[in-house]
């Protein structure tokens, strides 16, 4: 026998490679009872906890059923099938079938999808809705989540999906606590388990929408490598990926070492610039779709109008006089004045407010669109990732192992949130400014004015703003797992300690420093006839004048002053320490089988500290970056000096103590009545910030006497605890005028202080699922079907409020918000803007999965053909803000968000010993811009904030067709290709109430047709 077979026989362990080679035999696609193997193998395959697969394999993967020779060579020869375990539960006893639907993605399925980041493959599952990624958040400067790849199940957000690595927590890559999948070791992934239901009783906080668990191949032996490259039809987003992994056993097969290294780079799709134009590299779908707000609520016409080719009428590419007697005079690139074409037959009214007749509340349709800024947002962030991983395991004896893992990884991304620093008619330019053309100075004199309101896109700035986050993760785990005998019963144990650190540095380049910009645009003639800044204090501190009338490129000195190289900066150190000890056994045999028990305790500490530059944060004695940002009389010492990216200092930590118990009680084992079990779990969790909370789960399954038919149901109480950001957000103070004080019937100015709220409590969810599974009946052995209904009620949802909302709610009797301010006395009045447990979410729907596989030999063809499909229907997704007077909104089917009514993934695959061909379809249904709107043309009801009126409210879905294939050049070398979005389907517009980027990357493919090809080597 070869060493791998010897080890398997000696230890009764299931090799991860053999798991891939025999996946469908051991774990049928749709809930068939698995082929049984040695009891010890289940715990060995996933000592961190899990239960046998009881539901369909999520992503259609024929290779999992009939492995190709290269996949077998990559891992290990097929052995006698053993139990495959997944993370739907902590029970690992052989023969247990969990009631929670769990989808499984094998390494072969991941390889077939041929993506530079495994995140993309997993996010295609219909149950995953609202995940982030490299195309999401590219219009953001300050969020810190650009390029962050995190999952969202059921549309509940990334903060309500728990992502694990080998059943263990991973340090967050952001203060919201979500990890970055790009930092995971990806080549060694054995499979990915997706639990599509609440799992807090088994795994703790954040598992409200479900769990995504990455299971690595801990005992890989040999060497494998992968090289992949790709580019879009438009010649951009060039990407290349290199991966290699090696594993070997030493000391008579007792010492096991596995290492891997990965490098991947994606160019992304950069900003195109200003105007509607053809878009980045010829993409022609951007047409400035906008929901224009007429600002009229009760005249029988709709408040909102859907329009294409919309322009903002307060600024232009090279400048526009936005109000007053000279309103409507714009400037070309050379600074020459001309009469601006407003569109809509708009005529400037030349009043102090800058109104334009025939236009809509700041917007016109058509006309000169060259100043629009939507094309200036990156379609996809540039993304580079490095990953190094190692695991060393030592067998103390055939049943007990100690191990240590190290994962050091880095992800760097870059995006452009907007092309300039648009000023929407809110600048004041003096007529005497020497940059103002002579004819405009004459017009000023003729009209008796000395200044005018001015708006500009700031296309004069030659370099687009770029946001450049770098996330570096250090993760160390030490642990032991194995088994022992207690009172004649075998028990398995799993113990580990994990320490993780994530260091995030965010640099923002080429962004304006507002006090410098404001000083630089106010120019005068100096004593020697040179143009200088008007403010003497600014001149003394190095001010260089900036001409924003026209498009003359500023001097290097001016750019250095207006967009200093030491731009916004934030340094965040986030740590996680976690320890866990759990036991699994079957101490008692009952009438229908053994009573299975899982019990354990866990500890976790989360901590973060963030330091920001003094121009954004404000000057403090403890700020380590003060010396790099020179003192300046123009800069506000309190911070908030940048156009965007005003980061702030903060810190905080909390501790979690947990204990859990899970039981599997077999109820029935009868030839005539079938098999049934009851699954019970409970967890007590103490948070240092909010006290103790309890979670539980009750579920069961019945393998009916009807051939292949199984029923399952589960209900649970789940929680999401407030994260570091919500508890300890760095304070940001700004002055806000004209706040209504209902207690004293007056208007006041306040200092709005945005901070965390340490009084927050965990969100509480009630999860319910029920379904039926038909798995490979005798009359159709290749057929599998399942239908599962789900319902989630989430209360105490943490949501942020504005200062005026907090004051109003307190006056209306919502006492939670009263502690956020004190309006007594003569001021100054400080209002702490915080998050509160006020909102709620209700969602329900169902999942459908189907698979059919048949051999082609009867048709005279080699191999097998497999057809599989997964679909999720969202019946409702209702959000209630909890604010009195507001109407809950059902966003199911609102394609501007993350929850279309229907989402489908289908795959057809022909697999032979020599080649494979795979066709993939991704589809979601037509929807609306938002379900809150009332559609009408005439005789419209009064428009309200909760139920506004609109003239059009339809947003089409999309259908994408992908094709891929592979060919075995040798037994060890495979060439493959993949074409995504074969028909180059353009994204639909997702109009907002502005002229920014009008597309929703959470649903739509924004890149277009993508070509990829690569080589895999397995030895």
UniProtKB/TrEMBL annotation:
The lineage of its organism: Bacteria, Pseudomonadati, Pseudomonadota, Alphaproteobacteria, Sphingomonadales. Residues 472-982 form the TonB-dependent receptor-like beta-barrel domain. The keyword Cytoplasm does not apply. It is found in: Cell outer membrane. The keyword Cell cycle does not apply. Keywords: Cell outer membrane, Membrane, Receptor, Signal, TonB box, Transmembrane, Transmembrane beta strand, Transport. Residues 34-69 have a biased composition (Low complexity). Residues 1-31 form the signal peptide. SUPFAM superfamilies: Porins. Residues 97-211 form the TonB-dependent receptor plug domain. Belongs to the TonB-dependent receptor family. It is a multi-pass membrane protein. This is TonB-dependent receptor.
């Amino acid at each position: 026998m070869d060493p791998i077979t010897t080890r398997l026989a000696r230890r009764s362990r299931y090799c991860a490679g053999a798991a891939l080679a025999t996946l469908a035999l051991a774990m049928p696609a749709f809930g068939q009872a698995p082929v049984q193997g040695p009891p010890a193998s289940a715990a060995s395959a996933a000592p961190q906890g899990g239960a046998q697969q009881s539901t369909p394999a999520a992503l259609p993967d024929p290779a999992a059923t009939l492995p190709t020779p290269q996949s077998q060579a990559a891992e290990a020869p097929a052995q006698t099938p053993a139990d495959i375990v997944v993370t739907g539960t902590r029970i690992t006893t052989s023969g247990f079938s969990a009631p929670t639907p769990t989808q499984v993605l094998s390494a072969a399925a991941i390889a077939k999808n041929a993506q530079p980041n495994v995140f993309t493959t997993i996010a295609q599952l219909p149950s995953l809705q609202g995940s982030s990624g490299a195309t999401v958040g590219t219009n953001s400067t300050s969020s810190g989540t650009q390029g962050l790849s995190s999952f969202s199940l059921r549309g509940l957000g990334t903060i309500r999906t728990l992502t694990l690595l080998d059943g263990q927590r991973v340090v967050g890559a952001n203060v919201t606590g979500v990890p970055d999948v790009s930092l995971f070791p990806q080549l060694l992934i054995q499979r990915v388990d997706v639990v599509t239901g609440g799992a807090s009783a088994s795994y703790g906080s954040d598992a409200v929408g479900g769990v995504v668990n990455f299971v690595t191949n801990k005992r890989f032996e040999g060497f494998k490598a992968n090289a992949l490259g790709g580019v879009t039809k438009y010649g951009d987003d060039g990407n290349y990926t290199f991966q290699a992994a090696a594993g070997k056993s030493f000391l008579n097969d007792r010492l096991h070492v596995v290492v891997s290294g990965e490098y991947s780079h994606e160019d992304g799709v950069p900003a195109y610039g200003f105007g509607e134009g053809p878009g980045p590299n010829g993409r022609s779908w951007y047409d400035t779709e906008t929901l224009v707000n007429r600002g009229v609520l009760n005249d029988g016409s709709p408040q909102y109008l859907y329009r294409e080719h919309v322009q903002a009428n307060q600024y232009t590419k090279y400048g526009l006089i936005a109000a007053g007697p000279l309103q409507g005079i714009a400037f070309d690139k050379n600074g020459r004045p001309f009469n601006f074409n407003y569109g809509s037959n708009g005529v400037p009214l030349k009043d102090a407010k800058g109104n334009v007749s025939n236009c809509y509340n700041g917007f016109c349709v058509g006309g000169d669109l060259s100043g629009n800024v939507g094309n200036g947002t990156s379609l996809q962030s540039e993304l580079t990732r490095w990953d190094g991983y190692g695991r060393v395991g030592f067998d103390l004896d055939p049943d007990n192992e100690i191990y240590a893992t190290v994962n050091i990884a880095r992800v760097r991304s870059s995006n452009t949130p907007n092309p300039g620093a648009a000023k929407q008619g809110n600048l004041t330019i003096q007529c005497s400014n020497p940059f103002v053309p002579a004819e405009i100075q004459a017009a000023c004199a003729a009209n008796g004015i000395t200044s005018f309101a001015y708006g500009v896109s700031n296309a004069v700035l030659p370099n687009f703003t770029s946001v450049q986050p770098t996330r570096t993760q250090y993760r160390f785990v030490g642990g032991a797992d194995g088994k022992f005998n207690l009172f004649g019963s075998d028990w398995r144990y799993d113990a580990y300690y994990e320490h993780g650190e994530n260091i995030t540095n965010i640099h923002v380049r080429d962004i304006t420093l507002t006090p410098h910009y404001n000083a630089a645009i106010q120019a005068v003639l100096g004593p020697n006839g040179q143009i200088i800044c008007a403010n003497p204090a600014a001149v003394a501190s190095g001010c260089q004048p900036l001409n924003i009338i026209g498009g003359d490129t500023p001097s290097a000195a001016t750019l250095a002053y207006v967009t200093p190289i030491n731009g916004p900066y934030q340094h965040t150190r986030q740590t996680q320490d976690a320890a866990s000890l759990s036991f699994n056994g079957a101490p008692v045999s009952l009438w229908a089988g053994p009573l299975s028990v899982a019990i354990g305790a866990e500890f976790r500490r989360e901590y973060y500290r963030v330091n920001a530059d003094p121009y954004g944060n404000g000057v403090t004695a403890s700020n380590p970056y003060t010396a790099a940002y020179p003192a300046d009389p123009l800069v506000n010492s309190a911070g908030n000096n940048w156009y965007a990216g005003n980061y702030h200092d903060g810190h905080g930590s909390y501790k979690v103590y947990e204990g859990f118990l899970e039981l599997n009680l077999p109820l029935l084992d009868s030839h005539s009545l079938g098999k049934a079990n009851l699954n019970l779990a409970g967890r007590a969790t103490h948070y240092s910030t909010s006290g103790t909370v309890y979670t539980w789960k009750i579920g069961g399954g019945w393998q009916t006497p009807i051939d292949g038919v199984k029923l399952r149901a589960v209900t649970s109480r789940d929680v999401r605890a407030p994260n570091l950001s919500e508890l300890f957000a760095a304070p940001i103070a700004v002055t806000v005028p004209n706040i209504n004080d209902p207690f004293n019937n007056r208007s006041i100015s306040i200092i709005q202080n945005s901070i965390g709220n340490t009084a927050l409590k965990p969100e509480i969810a009630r999860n319910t699922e029920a379904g039926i599974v038909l798995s490979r009946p005798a009359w159709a052995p290749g057929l599998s079907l399942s239908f599962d209904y789900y319902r989630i009620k989430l209360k105490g949802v943490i949501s942020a409020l504005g200062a005026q909302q907090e004051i109003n709610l307190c006056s209306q009797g919502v006492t939670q918000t009263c502690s956020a301010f004190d309006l007594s006395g003569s001021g100054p009045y400080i209002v702490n803007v915080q998050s509160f447990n006020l909102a709620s979410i209700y969602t329900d729907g169902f999942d459908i999965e189907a698979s059919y596989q048949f051999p082609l030999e009867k048709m005279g063809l080699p191999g097998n053909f497999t057809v599989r499909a997964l679909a999720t229907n969202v019946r409702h997704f209702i959000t209630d803000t909890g604010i009195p007077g507001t109407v809950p909104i059902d966003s199911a089917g609102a394609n501007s968000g993350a929850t279309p009514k229907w989402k489908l993934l289908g795959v057809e695959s022909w697999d032979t010993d020599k080649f494979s061909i795979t066709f993939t379809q991704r589809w979601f249904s037509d929807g609306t811009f938002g379900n809150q709107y009332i559609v009408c043309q005439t005789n419209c009801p009064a428009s309200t904030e909760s139920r506004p009126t609109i003239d059009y409210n339809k947003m089409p879905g999309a259908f994408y067709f992908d094709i891929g294939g592979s060919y075995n050049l040798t037994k060890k070398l495979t060439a493959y290709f993949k074409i995504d979005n074969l028909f180059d389907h353009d994204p639909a517009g997702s109009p907002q109430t502005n002229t920014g980027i009008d597309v929703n990357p959470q649903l739509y493919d924004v890149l277009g047709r993508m070509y990829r090809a690569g080589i895999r080597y397995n030895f």
